[in-house]
Amino acid sequence: MSENQFIKPISTEKKDNLTIGGCDLVELAKEYGTPLYVIDEATLRGICKSYKQAFKEYENIKMMYACKALCTSAIIRILDEEDFGFDTVSAGEIYTVYKSGVDMQKVLFNGNNKSAQEIQLALEYGVGRFSVDNFHEAELLNNIAAAKGVTAEILLRITPGIECHTHDYIKTGQTDSKFGFDLTQLDSIINLIKTSYKNLNLRGLHAHIGSQIFETQCYYDEVEILVKEIARIKKEYGISLDEMNIGGGLGVKYTESDTPPSVSVLSDAVTNAMNKYAIDIPTIYIEPGRSIISTAGVTLYTVGSTKQVPNGRKYVAVDGGMADNPRPSMYQAQYTAEVANKPGCENTEKVTIAGRFCESGDILIENVDLPKLEAGDIICFYNTGAYNYSMSSNYNRVEKPAMVLVNNSQSDIIVYRETLDNLIANDNIPDRLRRK
Ligand code: LLP
Predict the structure, then answer these.
(1) Cβ(279) to ligand 1 under 6 A?
(2) β-pair type (314-318, 297-308)
(3) Ligand 1 centroid to residue 3 C-alpha, Å
(4) Domains in the chain and their CATH numbers?
């Protein structure tokens, strides 16, 4: 089993209280406050090793962590130590990676609407690859690279036309997608690169089929399309593309009913397609985000008010919600929770865990069986490492939570809790509204 197939971090233990990385979760809540994001270093490094193990047959495999899942300086440092490169999609992600001391050749710049300023910054920092998404970007990148007197090393992002069974909002590979070149547009862009875009060096193709994917067949189909196109381009244009990026998307286990495949499904899909078409592609990129970081992360909340609706359900409110984890309200995402200070207690109540934000839709889990809850109890939500902090907001002008890294009974802060002053730091009062 690889770590993406567990609900909880691998170091989770039930003692008097729940512990992760040897740290008592109730003590962490006391020391750092709640809501609190907690990242287990052992789980994170374990999954990195599972990926390496799955691709051990491939010499030129480039693992690119998709920063969008969780991008903080300490997390980037750990992934850099684990030999991962980085898939970035904004100046902010590129800057974080750069400031974390990463060799920028290991960085790929993705995205469907990169701005001229972002492209400038990426070229200045020496980002290794651009995944060119559309005709507009190809021209823009070529012009900026020409003005700088440099050549941009590029992959072309294609839309493979694959429909995966995941939430509609996180599908990307289907034909009607905002991302990438349709397969029927590939010849036009290749001709433009050959004839006009002298500052683009075409190295390979890139595709990404979606996120939280459980079906293995989608990957087989995707890699087959990439390999077929690479073979066709060689035959028709005499261009040898020596790089193929198969994207990310591998699912994780949020609840008992989730059955994500292990990471080896990705390497099997690659091997299968390469053998079928007897093609040898020297460099393969994969860019997983969620399956790298999700299971390593949990969120701790403190229970506050409760409301028993007469003849209805019982709501238990916690001190966080849709601003620190928008996934339940955005994607109807489901989570597993436990009470950190009552690990041995029987589940005696069915409750709905509500967030503290001013929206009826701010519900974190509906109808979950838990021990009887009281104000002050600490609830641990599992599998919140990915797309929680990275999609968090200051809705209701609430400070974003802190994040700690735990390992070998030690905890270290890796993101400070926002302060009230942080919240107004970018505000400006025009002169005419100033008070003497
Ligand atoms: N590569 C590309 C080009 C992507 O667009 C994405 C994710 C990834 C890699 C990483 O996919 P992963 O391995 O993390 O599934 N906010 C949504 C997920 C959006 C994913 C966007 N693209 C959620 O919370 O479920």
Answers:
(1) no
(2) antiparallel
(3) 18
(4) 41-292 (3.20.20.10)
